[in-house]
Amino acid sequence: MKSISQSDGFTLLELILSLAIVALMVGLSLGGIRLGIMARDAGDNKAETHQRLRTIAQQLGQKIKSNYPVYIQKKDQTFARDEANLQAAKRSLAFQGGENFVRLVTFSPPLTGDPEHAPFAHETLIYQGELPKTGETGIILMEREIQGDNLFTYIEPDQPDSRFYMLSKDVKYLKFRYYQMEKIPKNELESQSNPSITHRGLWVDEIFNVSARQLTEAEIERNKRLGIQGDDAISLPRAIEISIGLTEQPIGEEEAVVAYAPPIIIPLNSGMEFALPAREAEDAAN
After folding, report:
1. Contact call for residues 103 and 125 (beta carbons, < 8 A)
2. How far is the C-alpha of 262 from the C-alpha of 173, rounded, in Å?
3. Is the pLDDT of residue 214 over 70?
4. How many beta carbons lie within 10 A of that of residue 48, not counting itself?
5. Which partner from 32, 42, 101, 245 sits 20 to 30 angstroms from 56, CA to CA?
6. Where are the domains of the chain?
7. How far apart are CA 191 and CA 2, in angstroms?
8. Which of 150, 152, 204 lies closest to 177 in space, CA to CA?
9. Cβ–Cβ under 8 Å, residues 90 and 74
10. What does the alpha-carbon distance between residue 98 and residue 69 come to, in Å, rounded to a whole number?
11. How confident is the model at residue 181 (pLDDT cuts 50, 70, 90)?
């Protein structure tokens, strides 16, 4: 009978070490798979967020590019409608812009309402805030058909002509800036190499009809440079810059982060000559 040597097979210690190595290898493999899945989900989440940013930018750009300089006529409330009375009527531009909203008249197709009976032109308000019906926060688009004298009047959320639409939720940041032309001061104009360049551009944070409040000295000086005459006059910007930040959906126990898109500059092709302030009479004579 053949005797069994003690060196044949595994000892208990070797078996335990082998099982431990196998368990470690399986754990590392599962950890690598989990890490790969998390990286894939994070990449998909980031790609989806940037796709949402691009979609929002395209929708806002389509609305803003179709802006057109429409005036609001403020007539004298008298029975006499002679030519002098009509010429004395005040006109104001149907455009308002702030840091987190812009209100304008656009000719692009509306996103709300019946597409078969879409109006030729409508008023649009884009802002960051709450949706009136649900209270959800995000980038809100308001569209209102121009009927009678309702242009740039107070917006009633309950009225059927005011339609609100949620463009995007989870919006952390929305800011507008406006590029306007200003007249170069005479002292700077004399010192520059090319005196034929009489205007330059600047970025401003807001464009308002300022007749309802008292102007500061800085605003009066800026209006003179912009060629703005009268309390009700504002100048249409040459371009609008949009900055957007969205909150990414957290994965697992990670904290939510904000994804920012590069600032988008949308040129206003309509009303280009109108956007440039008119020269004064003495400048035109020269």
Report:
1. yes
2. 12
3. no
4. 13
5. 42
6. 61-278
7. 113
8. 204
9. yes
10. 17
11. confident
Average pLDDT over all residues of the chain: 74
Interatomic CA distance for residues 156 and 149, integer angstroms: 14
SS (H, E, C) the chain: CCCCCCCCCCCHHHHHHHHHHHHHHHHHHHHHHHHHHHHHHHHHHHHHHHHHHHHHHHHHHHHHHCECCCEEEECCCCCCCCHHHHHCCEEEECCEECCCEEEEEECCCCCCCCHHHCCCCEEEEEEEEECCCCCCEEEEEEEEECCCCCCCCCCCCCCCCEEEEEEEECEEEEEEEEEEEEECCHHHHHHCCCCCCCEEEEEECCECCHHHCCCCHHHHHHHHHHCCCCCCCCCCCCEEEEEEEEECCCCCCCCCCEEECCCEEEECCCCHHHHCCCCCHHHHHC
pLDDT, residue 90, reads 62
Distance CA(2)–CA(174), nearest Å, equals 87
